[in-house]
Amino acid sequence: MNSLDWTVLIGYFGVMVAIGIWSHKRVDNVSDFFTAGGKMPWWLSGISHHMSGYSAVMFTGYAAIAYTYGVTSYVTWSFPIAIGIAIGSRLFAPRLNRVRSRLHVASPLEYLKGRYNLPTQQALAWSGVLLKIVDVGAKWAAIATLLSVFTGVSLNMGILITGAVTAVYCTVGGLWADALTELGQFIIQLLAGVAMLIAVMAELGGFSSLWTVWDEPVMQGHTKPLAGPYMMVFLIAYLFIKTFEYSGGMWNQAQRYMATESAESAERSGRLSALLWLIWPLVLFFPMWVAPVILQGQKNVVPADSYAIMAEQLLPHGLLGLVVVGFFSHTMAMCSSDANAIAAVVTRDIMPAVSRKVREWDTRAGLLAARWSTLLFLGLSMAIATQVNSDFFGDIITVVIKWVAGLMGPIAIPLMLGLLPWFRKSGPTAALLSWGLGLLTFWLVNYPISWQIEGGVPLQYQVSIPLVVSLVLFILVGYIKPEDTPERDGILAQLNPDGDGGAAGAAIPAPAGPAAVPPVREGADG
C-alpha cells in the first residue's frame, strides 16, 4: 500500500465515524438505540441484514476453502444461508417484528421471560453472550490478519485500530449508525468486489475466463459441489443451523427484522437479504476459486492469504486501498451489529435480573448503560482476538465454523421455535434441556469423544450432532411434559397472525428492565 491507498483507508474510517456522530441525533432512548424506533425502511433493513452476516473471514478462512476445494465454498456456505434466510423471511421475520411492535420490547430475548421463565431467558442470554465474544474475536483476528498482509501492522495493533473505530460509531449512534454505515459499506464492497473480479478476468484473458479457466490442470476437482470435509451431512446441518442463525438466532439479525415498520416490511427485508446472499457471493468467490491459476508457480502460498496476495499483485494503488476498505466493511458491519445486539441483551435481559436498581433506571440511565455495555463487549472480544490462534481455540476458520455453528443450534432453537404456535407445548423444561444437553453434546463430540478417535470426529458431525440433539429434545420433551399455559398462549397469540397463536391469553406481562413499557393486550398491533 502507498499513500493513495492509505488515504482511501483513513477516509473510510473518517466517514464511518461521521455517520455515527450524525446518527447520534436520532437516538433518544433505548428503543432508538437497539431497534431504530421501529422506523427503518425495509430496503435498508435488508441491506443491513445482508451486510451484518459477513466478515473478513470471507477473505481469509473461506478464501482458503475456495482455494483448496473450489465451488464447494459457495455450495456449502452462502447458498444454504440464502435458502435459510428465504425460509426465515416467511417463518420468523414477521413474528420477530411483532415481538417489538406488540410486546414493546427492545431485545430479541426479552419475550423469553414470559414465553418460558426467567432461568431459561438467563441461560440463553449468558451462553449467547459468551459465544458471541469468541465469534467476534475471530472476526477481529481475521481483519487484523489481512491488515498485516497489506501494511505490516502487527496483529494486535490491527485489532486495536479496527475495534476502536467501530466502537466510536456504533456506541454513539446505535442501530441507526450500524444500518447507515452498512449501507455505505455495501456500496464500497460492491465497487471493490467488481474491481477485483474485472482485474482477475483481465489477468486470465477476458470475460471468457468465466468458463474456460476450469480446464486448467490446477483446477482439477474445483467444480465439485461437495468436497473435503464439506459433504452432504455438513450441507444439511449447515442449512438448518443457518436458517435458525440468520433468521434471528444470531441476535443482530433479529434486530433488523424488529427495526422495520411492520411485519410485512420485515418479510420483504428478509427476501432482499436472501437474494443478495444468493447472487453477490458468486462475484466475491470467483477470484478465490481461480487463485491457484493466477498464483501457480509462486512458492509457499498460504491459502488464507491468497485473495490478499492477488489484490496486491493485480490492482493499481487506489483500487487496492478500496479492496482493503471492502475487507473492513464486512468485518466492521458484522462486529458493530453484534455489539449492539449483545448490549441489548445485557442491558434489557441480564442486568435487570441481577440488580433491582437496574429495573428502576430512567431513559437516560438505560441509554448510558447501553453504550457502556457496547464498549465492554467490544473490549472483551478484542482481547479474545489476540488469543484466537492459540492451541485452545484453533485457527480462525475453526472458531467460526466449529464453535459458532456447533453451539448456535442449542442456543437458537428455544428462541426461534418458541415463536411458533406449533411448539406451544414446549415450555421451560423443554427449552432448558434442549439448551443444556445440546451444549454438553457439543463438548463431548468435539473433545472427549474426538480425542478417542484417530483423526477426530469429522467436522460435519461436530456441527450437526449438537443441533440434532437440541432439536429432538425441544420437540420430544414438549410432548412428554407439555407446559402450555394461558399466559404463554397469550404471548403466542400476539406474535402470530390472527387465529394462528393457539388459545387466547391474558395481558402480556411488561418486560423487566430499563424503560419498561406498560403491558399490552392480545390483538394490539404496531
UniProtKB/TrEMBL annotation:
Q: Where in the cell is it found?
A: Cell membrane
- Residue spans with biased composition (Low complexity)? 505-526
Membrane spanning segments where? 6-22, 42-68, 74-93, 123-143, 155-176, 188-214, 226-244, 274-295, 307-328, 365-388, 400-423, 430-449, 461-480
Membrane association type: Multi-pass membrane protein
User: Which InterPro entries does the UniProt record give?
Assistant: Na/Glc_symporter_sf, Na/solute_symporter, Sodium:Solute_Symporter_SSF
Gene3D superfamilies, A to Z: Sodium/glucose cotransporter
Superkingdom, according to UniProt?
Bacteria
Keyword list (alphabetical) reads: Cell membrane, Ion transport, Membrane, Sodium, Sodium transport, Transmembrane, Transmembrane helix, Transport
Coiled-coil portions? none
This protein's record includes keyword Nucleus: no
Region entry Disordered: which residue ranges?
A: 502-526
Similarity annotation: Belongs to the sodium:solute symporter (SSF) (TC 2.A.21) family.
The name this protein carries in UniProt is Na+:solute symporter
**Biological classification of the source:** Bacteria, Bacillati, Actinomycetota, Actinomycetes, Kitasatosporales
